[in-house]
Design a protein that fits this description.
By secondary structure, the chain is an alpha+beta fold. The protein is built from 15 helices and 19 strands. A hairpin with a 2-residue loop joins strand 10 and strand 11.
């Protein structure tokens, strides 16, 4: 099909031979029950790309994450100086541990948002922390595709799968195991989150899936809603689990009116919640702007890597910038070239605080630029039109089963520097823009290598 980006390859992975369209849809509806899933249409096969493309995506993700971590830590000798450099609200970062732990583990889990631009992967942002969305979806979708294709080969051991994938839960489990060993503790993990953060979810299955996975691999594991966290303390006052998965953000929990004091007590009582507070400084989009503009410690190879994979990104302010070899006032540039830029709040998720210049009313854009330049709380990024590829979709009927063209947003997970699966979000009609499962109705799939 014309117009498809060569990075995606030919997309020749066939759908699994069975089940049929309606059974396939019901398989995914059942597998994804009560984790937040739009099952009106489902993919007929995973998004398959050449091994070289998948390897590039994961390798670039890990290297970019390492650069962001270095940039944040180089911004100041401690947390106070780094928060000051970012001009962040210190009250949104109340859960720090000791500096060594923060620095060691602040980039242990991440999921960038990536589109395929004319020259290949382009990283729009990097979400860092344990609360990055889509992890459970990615694990379940990947596992379900593996099972369906294994059944085509007369059982899991009947032959090799026609693709290569990664297990997100397995990689997180290895991280937890390594941290427990480093702490000299028995293997135990507390998952801390709330169903209130998950639209359309009513039970705890979203968290129970990972608890069950950990228990099957010899861990003590338990899920806690914040109001129940006190049950994790032993009679001696110590927390019974040495490691936790911090599946929340301070902003969201304050919106829900959730008291953070129990989390502080659990931290002080010996539970290391991953990723720690500093992760949310690494994910601040201003750090992307720093490395896009260049830092004194960056090598020539670092700068070339950033030029290749990161769209031109600058922290907003009343200042001069160089874009495509010419010097501009940043506000002047953004007003004069609206269709070529995106404005993003430095702190935000799920598409909140993002304006796409090509689809924003000029008056709205002008007001947003004026505010962003004045407040210095955003980044401006060059707009990248996403590349297209083929995708199979079905609504459960033969008539509604078809191949279409989509503009996918890729979300490769990196855990302890290793590939851990890749979420794919897209609109069924092939549209681009702000692509999110929550609030924008995007469909989801996973990427595999062939």
């Amino acid at each position: 099909m014309t117009g498809h980006h060569p990075w995606f390859g030919t997309g020749e992975l066939p759908p699994p031979a069975r089940p049929g369209a309606e059974e396939l849809r019901q398989t995914f509806v059942h597998a994804m029950r009560d984790v937040g899933f739009n099952g009106a249409q489902v993919a007929t096969r995973p998004l398959a790309v050449p091994h070289a493309s998948a390897a590039e995506l994961y390798a670039a993700s890990a290297r970019l994450l390492a650069l962001l971590r270095t940039a944040l830590l180089a911004a100041g000798p401690g947390r106070e100086e780094r928060m000051a450099a970012l001009a962040v609200d210190e009250t949104l970062h109340p859960l720090f541990t000791d500096d060594r732990t923060e620095e060691r583990h602040c980039a242990c889990m991440a999921r960038p948002d990536v589109v395929i631009g004319p020259g290949g992967p382009q990283f729009l942002e990097v979400n860092v922390g344990g609360a990055v969305g889509g992890a459970v979806h990615t694990h379940v979708l990947t596992r379900t595709w593996c099972r369906l294709y294994a059944e085509d080969r007369d059982g899991p051991d009947g032959g090799r799968l026609p693709f290569h994938s990664h297990s997100l839960f397995a990689e997180r489990r290895r991280l937890f195991e390594a941290v427990c060993a480093e702490l000299g503790a028995e293997r135990g993990v507390a998952l801390l989150g709330t169903v209130r953060d998950l639209p359309g979810v009513h039970g705890t299955r979203y968290f129970d899936l990972e608890v069950d996975h950990l228990r099957r691999h010899g861990f003590a594991a338990e899920f806690f809603e914040p109001e129940d966290l006190h049950h994790g303390h032993g009679a001696d006052g110590r927390f019974r689990y040495p490691v936790g998965l911090r599946h929340f953000t301070v902003t969201e929990w304050r919106h829900h009116g959730i008291d953070l004091a129990p989390v502080r007590r659990a931290l002080d009582a010996g539970c290391l919640f991953l990723a720690p507070q500093t992760a949310y400084l690494v994910s601040n989009k201003k750090v992307l702007g720093w490395i896009s503009e260049g830092r004194p410690w960056m090598t020539g190879a670092d700068r070339e890597f950033v030029r290749r994979y990161l769209p031109w990104t600058r922290v907003t302010g009343d200042r001069a910038v160089v874009w495509r070899g010419r010097r501009y006032g940043l506000g002047e540039l953004l007003l004069g070239r609206r269709e070529q830029f995106v404005l993003k709040k430095a702190v935000g998720m799920c598409g909140d605080g993002v304006l796409l210049g090509p689809s924003t009313d000029p008056a709205v854009w002008a007001d947003a630029v004026e505010r962003a330049v004045r407040e210095e709380d955003s980044v401006a990024q060059e707009y990248v039109e996403p590349g297209r590829c083929a995708a199979g979709l079905t609504d459960g009927t033969e008539a509604g089963t078809h191949t279409t063209t989509i503009a996918p947003l890729l979300g490769p997970y990196i855990v302890a520097g290793r590939p851990a699966g890749c979420l794919v979000r897209y609109f069924a009609d092939g549209g681009s823009g702000i692509v999110s499962m929550y609030g924008h109705g995007a469909l989801i799939n996973v990427l595999v290598g062939v």
